[in-house]
Amino acid sequence: MNTIRSLLKKTGVQAAFFAAFGAAAWYGGSYYERQRCREKLASLGLPVTLSEYPQFPITPIISAAEVDQNRVALVQKRTSEIMRFGFPSLNNVRYFDDFLLSYDNRTRVANWVFEHLTEENLKVKDNVNRELCQFVEDPTIHQFFRSTNADYYRSGYDRGHLAAAGNHKLQQSHCDQTFTLSNIAPQVGVGFNRGAWNRLEKYVRAQARHNSNVYVCTGPVFKPHREADGKKYVKYEVIGERDVAVPTHFFKVIVMEGHDNKLTMEAYLMPNQPINDNAPLTQYLVRIIRKSLYNNNSISPPTKLSK
């Protein structure tokens, strides 16, 4: 005992002793606090381990040996063709074999989807069957931010395509990928997804068959409206456990390159509501700058546009 007391009288030993004592107390206290938090989270039915919360990287890490280098090269080549005039934004971009998109973790729908259509790639192969496609979650998006089929179940909304399945029937895999839920948004069914929006998609395909190239950018819009107090608000419905946002409108911007290499552009803004079958599509033509005001993306007209 006397030996211990004599050691503690030495300044260096005192410092080491109290440091060790403090560290042990801190570790014990923090361990108790973590256990208490785990018990509280478990009682609320919430995840209790850090691995169950969003972390970086949020996409799977795979070795180079597992990557199909041929497919990577094809996707890179196709991307350069699709994005000939540049990207509207670079937020959370996801690459598919025949289209690509930017995903919004907050709304659980895409910011935009980009496609490149030609008469050749619109051809339908005999072995491609849309009925074989199934709506699937996007595994590249963390489960906290992805939409699910359960979110749409009994919601009253269709699972509406942004990159239309009818635009990608050259290969079964291309058509399958359009059913990935990151390419889907809640759309009113009768009168919109199965009506006016479908007519617009058919119109785009018709333009692709009469031009050398057609570039299509499609996405949701959450348009502000003025209320009784004179102020403008952005309000929209959300569906499902993941709170998938229901857009108030949808836009589609079409850049057409004719056989004479001249470029023309059309932009459509359609409300996500039943639209009369007799309403002409031209009723929803808008100036491109107007669409940009309602969306965080920048869709700039390419050079050499004739209108």
Automatic annotation (TrEMBL):
A Pfam match is Endonuclease_NS
Q: Which UniProt keywords apply?
A: Endonuclease, Hydrolase, Magnesium, Metal-binding, Nuclease
Question: Which residues are named in the active-site annotation?
Answer: 161
MF (Gene Ontology)? metal ion binding; nucleic acid binding; RNA endonuclease activity; single-stranded DNA endodeoxyribonuclease activity
Give residue ranges for domain DNA/RNA non-specific endonuclease/pyrophosphatase/phosphodiesterase.
95-305
Q: Where is the ENPP1-3/EXOG-like endonuclease/phosphodiesterase domain?
A: 96-300
Per UniProt, Mg(2+) binds at 193
KW Nuclease (keyword) present: yes
Q: In this entry, which stretches build a coiled coil?
A: none
Q: Which InterPro entries match?
A: DNA/RNA_endonuclease_AS, DNA/RNA_non-sp_Endonuclease_sf, Endo_G_ENPP1-like_dom, ENPP1-3/EXOG-like_nuc-like, His-Me_finger_sf, Non-specific_endonuclease
Task: Kindly list the biological process annotations in GO that this record carries.
Answer: apoptotic DNA fragmentation
Cell membrane recorded as keyword? no
Family membership, please give it: Belongs to the DNA/RNA non-specific endonuclease family.
UniProt cross-references to PANTHER family, sorted A to Z: ENDONUCLEASE G, MITOCHONDRIAL, ENDONUCLEASE RELATED
- What is this protein's record name? Endonuclease
User: What is the organism of origin for this protein?
Assistant: Nesidiocoris tenuis
